[in-house]
């Protein structure tokens, strides 16, 4: 069977189409917040929260919850708020807080998955959680519905508060002086980031989700210099790379998370070279 016929066969199944929609929505949401997080130097918050989500997912598995997101989502959101508060503490800097929470969550999660193993193949479960499902087709209908609802909510929130996010991203002190409640919007950014992390774990895993947030933003910044342009171009790059990555993973049976991230890496190098040729520093 040639590639075209194989792809047409896959797309004839509704669950494949749903999976592609989920992937595109997650990539879109990740790119929206990615620009803000990179400019505010919060890039590593994705790693910290993804490890927290891994720990929460391990606890949910031990508790045998029907849907691990019922526990993973609120725990990750609370951790995002906690990270923000700890980052404002002069005794515990933001990067130290992220490192503490990240390492502790990863260690606890891995320990629980081994001690309370419900399956013989614990290493397989851990790899699937850390690096994403081997096949995008393993997503359940409940995961699809949750992703669609939360993704739409994230997009609407970003559009409504776009000007506020722009203000706290570039000059937080000036934003405060003009009456913008920067702490509130920083908190909102942290909460949305937590939601995106949990959604993205089903697609690329906890160790690779940061790439979905960072690479499209960095790629766009190589070619565009204004905030709105970077956000729009980042969205385009992220969605295209996610679509290509998912299709390639289905056609050639490669891990979907790794395939998407490698596609994002290729896009970054293309933008980097294009920026150098165009003389954009």
- Structural class call reads mainly alpha
Unreliable sequence segments = none
Distance between the terminal alpha carbons, to the nearest Å?
A: 47 Å
Rg from Cα: 19 Å
Helix count equals 13
Assign the CATH class. Answer: Mainly Alpha
What is the H/E string?
HHHHHHHHHHHHH
* Mean pLDDT level: 79
Transmembrane segments: 15-39, 68-84, 96-116, 146-165, 185-218, 230-252, 258-278
Subcellular location: Cell membrane; Membrane
Family: Belongs to the ABC-3 integral membrane protein family.
InterPro entries: ABC_BtuC-like (IPR037294), ABC_TroCD (IPR001626)
Give structural notes.
The protein has 281 residues and is mainly α. It has a single domain, classed as ABC transporter involved in vitamin B12 uptake, BtuC (Orthogonal Bundle). It has 13 helices and no strands. It has helices at 3-11, 14-39, 45-62, 69-87, 94-115, 122-131, 141-160, 162-170, 172-177, 182-204, 209-221, 227-252, 256-278. Helix 3 runs antiparallel to helix 4 (69-87), helix 8 (162-170) packs across helix 10 (182-204) and helix 12 (227-252) packs across helix 13 (256-278). The protein is globular, with a radius of gyration of 19 Å.
């Amino acid at each position: 069977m040639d590639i075209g016929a194989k792809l047409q066969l896959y797309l004839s199944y509704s669950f494949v189409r749903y999976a592609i929609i989920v992937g595109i929505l997650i990539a879109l949401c990740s790119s929206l917040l990615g620009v803000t997080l990179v400019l505010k130097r919060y890039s590593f918050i994705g790693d910290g929260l993804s490890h927290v989500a891994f720990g929460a997912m391990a606890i949910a598995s031990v508790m045998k919850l029907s849907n691990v997101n019922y526990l993973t989502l609120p725990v990750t959101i609370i951790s995002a708020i906690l990270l923000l508060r700890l980052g404002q503490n002069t005794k515990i800097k933001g990067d130290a807080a992220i490192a503490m929470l990240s390492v502790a969550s990863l260690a606890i999660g891995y320990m629980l998955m081994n001690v309370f193993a419900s399956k013989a193949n614990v290493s397989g479960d851990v790899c699937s959680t850390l690096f994403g499902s081997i096949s995008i087709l393993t997503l359940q209908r409940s995961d699809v519905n949750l992703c669609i609802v939360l993704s739409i909510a994230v997009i609407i929130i970003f559009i409504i508060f776009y000007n506020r996010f722009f203000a706290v991203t570039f000059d937080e002190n000036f934003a405060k002086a003009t009456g913008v409640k920067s702490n509130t919007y920083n908190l909102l950014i942290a909460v949305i980031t937590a939601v995106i992390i949990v959604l993205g774990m089903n697609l690329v895993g906890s160790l690779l989700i940061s790439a979905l947030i960072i690479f499209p933003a960095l790629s766009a910044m190589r070619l565009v210099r204004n905030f709105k342009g970077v956000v729009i171009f980042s969205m385009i790059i992220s969605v295209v790379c996610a679509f290509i990555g998912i299709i390639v993973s289905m056609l050639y049976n490669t891990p979907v998370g790794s395939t998407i991230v490698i596609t994002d890496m290729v896009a970054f190098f293309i933008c980097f070279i294009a920026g150098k040729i165009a003389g954009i520093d």
